[in-house]
Design a protein that fits this description.
The protein is an all-alpha fold and 58 residues long. Helix content is 66%, strand content 0%.
Length: 58
């Protein structure tokens, strides 16, 4: 087997954080808005299901 260098936890975290580019304010805003849009669509669909008249099954 090949010898792989082992990193400390601190170095590994720094390496991972470095690879994640910081998002701009507008990107974060857009992500929040799309999440809210999805939530609104889900709630509207749920309301439509609940508002449907019940059928009598006798």
């Amino acid at each position: 087997m090949a010898d792989t260098p082992k990193l400390s936890v601190e170095k590994a975290l720094k390496k991972l954080q470095k690879s994640d580019e910081p998002k701009s304010k507008t990107e974060r805003y857009d992500e929040k808005m799309s999440a809210l849009d999805e939530e609104i669509a889900r709630m509207r669909a749920q309301r439509l299901r609940l508002d449907r008249p019940k059928r009598n099954r006798d």
